[in-house]
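FAQ: What does the model actually see?

It sees only this:
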Amino acid sequence: MVFRSVALLTLIATAPQAVAVSVSDAQVLAIARKHCAMCHAERPTHESFNEAPKGIVIETVADPKKYASAIYTQTVQTKTMPLGNQSGMTDDERAALGQWLKGSQ
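And it is asked to produce this:
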């Protein structure tokens, strides 16, 4: 009986935790400002763009919600955005953005 208890406790202690952490609007806006707004702004600062690609502007919390499906596909699933990952978006930032986008739909 003691062996089973120890084995169960070991299993619980070493199992990966699947605890969902809430992602705030402020966190998403910070990610968007860091990785998206240089191109996807009313006035892009990236030297390659005079206007936001595909007309997708991401400057407010409402903007990622408006384009949630496209952002999720391009940024979280295929990782094609940011273009060439020039801004160095991390997998953790992509996961946070994806979680928030799924919750906003």
